[in-house]
């Protein structure tokens, strides 16, 4: 159990840090940065990783049952829409709050979805899981309150409240759609694990195999959206900048961290056992929220926030961590 929990926490750490390099790009509009990011993380990185690391790649995916393709494809497509909305929410409400609301929603809903495929755990285990998730919910609510207070502190008035409310709504809806990732992982892992092992692959390669259909399906909607956005906002010309090479390198780091974090979660869920998809998903995402909040503090997102706003933020963070300890405990008694 300790190994699985540690892997889930480390995966969350990577996810919490993945968007940080965006702050250091130059001359790029929102559309330039995120179009390159999604192209790299959804297509280039997973395709190279899958073809390089998976023995029997064609055999494994060529024989995958159609119902699994459909389940993974549709729910991953919804995940793709959700992640796209997440990036938009970050622009409205900042890295810290964007992570808190979006991933908090994912934790609350996405942690329960695997039960559809895996079945319910014993009553005592389920009770602790639900208690832990409820504690996380309270933490998310407090973080939302902290973000609204910060907006007022920075603006001096409530004139920009609409932007904050819009950002929170985008993050919540995006989070609901993004729970498709959790279901796709639960639906595809059993077959892909057996097929991967049969081809002589190590256990951890299953995580790479699971990410392949998830990322490609999720990437379809993002590609279409950002091609439209680049043209709509006349942003193609922003690629012509002396900082292009540096920007691409920074965005590649974002892409690798995002992909690696997702694959590492899938492996952590496997190591955590029968309730691993639920427990691992909650630990993974809460860890990423905590990391994002800390990184937001370090990059001075909250420098102009009042002590009251920061108190809500810290209280929310403490509750989320407490909740995830309870969830981890549930896996121990399972």
From TrEMBL:
Report which superkingdom the organism of origin falls in.
Answer: Bacteria
Question: Keywords in UniProt for this one?
Answer: Cell inner membrane, Cell membrane, Membrane, Sugar transport, Symport, Transmembrane, Transmembrane helix, Transport
A Gene Ontology cellular-component term: membrane
Q: Where are the transmembrane segments?
A: 6-24, 36-56, 68-86, 93-113, 125-143, 164-184, 204-228, 248-270, 282-299, 311-330
Alphabetized GO MF terms:
rhamnose transmembrane transporter activity; symporter activity
Q: What is this protein called?
A: L-rhamnose-proton symport protein (RhaT)
Taxonomically, what lineage is the organism?
Bacteria, Pseudomonadati, Bacteroidota, Flavobacteriia, Flavobacteriales
């Amino acid at each position: 159990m300790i190994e699985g929990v540690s892997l889930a926490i480390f995966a969350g750490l990577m996810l919490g840090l993945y968007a940080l390099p965006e702050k250091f790009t130059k001359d790029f509009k929102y559309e330039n940065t995120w179009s390159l990011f999604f192209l790299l993380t959804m297509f280039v990185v997973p395709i190279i990783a899958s073809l390089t690391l998976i023995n029997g790649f064609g055999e494994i995916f060529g024989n995958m049952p159609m119902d699994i393709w459909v389940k993974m494809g549709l729910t991953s497509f919804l995940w793709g829409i959700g992640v796209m909305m997440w990036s938009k929410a970050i622009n409205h409400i900042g890295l810290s709050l964007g992570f808190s609301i979006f991933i908090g929603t994912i934790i609350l809903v996405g942690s329960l979805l695997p039960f559809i495929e895996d079945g319910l755990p014993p009553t005592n285990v389920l009770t602790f899981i639900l208690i832990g998730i409820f504690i996380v919910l309270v933490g998310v609510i407090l973080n939302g309150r902290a973000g609204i207070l910060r907006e007022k502190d920075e603006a001096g008035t409530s004139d920009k409240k609409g932007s904050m409310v819009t950002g929170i709504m985008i993050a919540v809806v995006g989070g609901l759609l993004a729970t498709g990732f959790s279901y796709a992982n639960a639906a595809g892992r059993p077959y892909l694990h057996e097929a991967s092992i049969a081809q002589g692959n190590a256990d951890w390669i299953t995580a790479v195999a699971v990410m392949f259909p998830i990322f490609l399906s999720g990437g379809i909607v993002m590609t279409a959206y950002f091609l439209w956005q680049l043209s709509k906002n006349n942003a193609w010309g922003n690629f012509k900048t002396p900082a292009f090479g540096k920007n691409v390198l920074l965005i590649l780091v974002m892409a690798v961290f995002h992909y690696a974090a997702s694959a590492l979660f899938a492996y952590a869920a496997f190591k955590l056992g029968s309730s691993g998809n639920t427990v691992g998903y909650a630990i993974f995402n809460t860890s990423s929220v905590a990391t994002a909040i800390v990184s937001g503090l370090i990059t001075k997102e909250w420098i102009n926030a009042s002590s009251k706003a920061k108190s809500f933020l810290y209280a929310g963070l403490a509750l989320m961590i407490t909740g995830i300890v309870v969830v981890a405990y549930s896996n121990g008694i399972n």
